[in-house]
Here is the input.
Amino acid sequence: MALLPILCFPDPKLHTVAKPVQQVDARIKALIADMLETMYEAKGIGLAATQVDVHERLIVIDVSEERDEALVLINPQTVWTSPEMHINEEGCLSVPGVYDGVQRHDAITVSALDGQGKPHTVQADGLLAVCIQHEMDHLMGKVFVEYLSPLKRNRIKTKMIKAQREDQR
Ligand code: NI
Here is the structure.
């Protein structure tokens, strides 16, 4: 297993639209293990393959307190979303230190393959529902700050570029 570098906003590679995973083979299983390790190390609750510069439809999530309920979604498809929506505070490992409100469906049902390549259906609400929607956006090349006003987004962009420049010193 290995820790993977996480792309940071405004890296244009974060806007790549991911392609479906063709086969859940040894390469994908190794990628899942590395993404889980990277997510836990970074204390995140979700990570999309897009964020580690792999542009295939794969997400890992763990919203549990104990950090022992890993959820793997390969080629996720939205089956149903609740008409009710609410604004929740979100953050992202690709936009460190930034938290802001995004409107999401309260509940969502998705079908996907699990880490073994078996089909499963996940019915989610609460934090898990928010996290799934956030991560599925990544696979479409969308970062949560794109829901914010252009003014806020530009402020975040400037802050990120400055922080990344300081990191390189
Ligand atoms: Ni994110």
